[in-house]
Specification:
By secondary structure, the chain is an alpha/beta fold. 37% of the residues lie in helices and 13% in strands. The radius of gyration is 18 Å and the shape is globular.
């Protein structure tokens, strides 16, 4: 994949694909009828197989791997990675503590490496082309995790990684983001220049998208969100404060589609935006908002 950046391009991505059937239905609808270009798949999540089946029906949906290494289910059995997960097979959400363990403890790093490879394996088993990789809660900002993604990803055709840099990021974070950007560049991996979605996570409604589209910086942007269809209760307890239906409505909004068109930005998944040379079977063509998949 070329890493040359378009003058202005946008990737609309839905995270947590596979987490719940309501999420999967929203992704399908937002891609068919709205501006959504891509989705990031949680391969160990309860509705992952449903997500994979929907993605197979949507050849123009660019699907990537959403690595889960915090606050979610692992892919390997708990007895194989006891230093990473509880007896229920789930990662905890003590990311600062776990980050220190990943960095300093060799036996924890060995289990982490096996789990990351297992998630890449599970994605490969889906038969879906790998458009990109990112991590749940942006845990790939951790240097150990990023190193393993770069190293292991080479075996699976990894070509693009999300750079979780928002222009409103605090000043103290910018040097760290610069290091991540430099490592991705050195590895020859394509990445976006900025994201929209951190400051307003869980609340990426129409107003937020319209404001973002009215002030796009140059380069490649990724607008990511967490849409879901309406239903009883939150998708997960940790997302109780999210407004996923509002996010779905925003992706389907004619006003958002019109603003995107007026911006003149090219759209598509990472492969389309960065000009991946793919076979017809795996090609991801950039779409106009609201276009039907081929």
């Amino acid at each position: 994949m070329s890493t040359q950046r378009a003058a202005r391009a946008l990737i609309f991505t839905a995270d947590d694909f596979g987490l719940h059937p309501r999420v999967n239905a929203a992704v399908e609808r937002a891609h068919r009828d709205g501006v959504l270009n891509a989705a990031s798949l949680m391969v160990g999540a309860p509705a992952a197989q449903d997500a994979i089946e929907r993605a197979r029906r949507l050849p123009s949906l660019a699907v990537g791997l959403h690595l889960v290494l915090a606050d979610g289910p692992a892919t390997l059995p708990a007895h194989e990675i006891p230093a990473l997960v509880g007896a229920d097979g789930r990662f905890g959400d003590a990311m600062a503590k776990d980050g220190c363990r990943f960095f300093f403890l060799p036996h924890v790093r060995a289990q982490l490496r096996r789990e990351i490879r297992a998630q890449f394996d599970a994605f490969a088993a889906s038969g879906l082309p790998l458009d990109h990789v990112n991590a749940h809660k942006h845990f790939h900002l951790h240097p150990t995790i990023l190193s393993m993604i770069i190293e292991i990803g080479r075996d699976y055709g990894l070509r693009a990684v999300r750079l979780p840099y928002e222009v409103t990021a605090p000043a103290w974070l910018k040097p760290w983001i610069g290091l991540v950007r430099a490592r991705l560049d050195h590895a020859g991996l394509a990445h976006n220049d900025y994201v929209v979605g951190i400051e307003h996570t869980g609340g990426m409604d129409e107003a937020v998208l319209l404001d973002a589209l009215a002030a796009l910086p140059p380069g490649v942007g990724e607008i990511y969100c967490h849409p879901a269809e309406a239903g009883e209760g939150p998708v997960t307890p940790t997302m109780a404060g999210y407004r996923p239906v509002d996010e779905l409505d925003a992706l389907l909004s004619p006003r958002v589609a019109a603003a995107l068109k007026a911006s003149g930005a090219a759209t598509g998944g990472f492969a389309a935006v960065f000009g991946q040379a793919a076979s017809p079977r795996t090609a991801r063509a950039a779409r106009q908002p609201g276009a039907q998949p081929s």
